[in-house]
């Protein structure tokens, strides 16, 4: 029969084991995120698995709409009601907006201990920090200047990777003549702006893109280049189908997957969708850089921000942050998401062909300072500028305004924008 001290020890052990099996509210990771498509759900499941392996509880709420008003409004409501999540997915300048309000946890101690400055690309650090302090935890490096192409249709039509703008137009004309949807796209302004930013980077080059859309420098506005960009967007309008005004981005991806469309100009999360469907690059689909943007990485980095006012054990927060930045999590997560990791030191071997190219491109662009924030995803400029650009770009692509009107309105937006 156990002695009293032994009984006390056993009881303590059982209580601790029960607590570990059923984490308390103070030991539970509570997050808000926007990953709702099939590939994205697989990705959030990977984060959950890694967090639960640490003995923490997990509570996640999804609100569709990456970085859009739908998601932002829900987050603002929770914060305003005094019930912020422990952590929320965030991108780009939205991170700075929350930091400016004094709502976010300072992560400098963890960042210094684990040498984030050494392993995270500089362009991402620019958005992860506010006034020199770490406030965001980057989990990936999506890039947006991709063509995602149905391999069977490409082969059937005798086409190959387009290297230049004329190559792309020839490809699209061939697809249209064959009865395919040349470019699959959805109805939302951010999708239209993704197309625009690749066209802009291809037409103007890295320095033009940086000075106009990141630095918001009105002296860099070369009106001939701006006019050429909108002329090219008008050309691409001819390759869209009537269904574009009703579908969302992942429905457009389904059109490419099924062979009803030749290609989609979209971020590397498409690779995650294809991966979730069991497709293999080089056999079922191909990934090419948008013509004339080779060497550039227009990027969007999903990050997590942590709110000061959420009641939780400090160690729970710290474990969550450290786990997100773990090399193995970033490997497994980004094999699923289709992105490159947010760290430059994650091994490439287990990634598919498109994932390995994304990692190679990210590392090279980081060294050359050729990683440039995505306009569409809010990584290039503050929210008011992004939303103003959304309006003019979408109005133009949908044929509501002329080239000259679009040129004038864009120049006005850049000229009137506060300099970063």
TrEMBL record:
Secretion signal span: 1-21
The entry's keywords: Signal, Transport
Biological role: Part of a binding-protein-dependent transport system for a sugar.
Organism: Marinobacter salexigens
Compartments where located: Periplasm
Main location (coarse class): periplasm
Family: Belongs to the bacterial solute-binding protein 1 family.
Annotated protein name in UniProt: Probable sugar-binding periplasmic protein
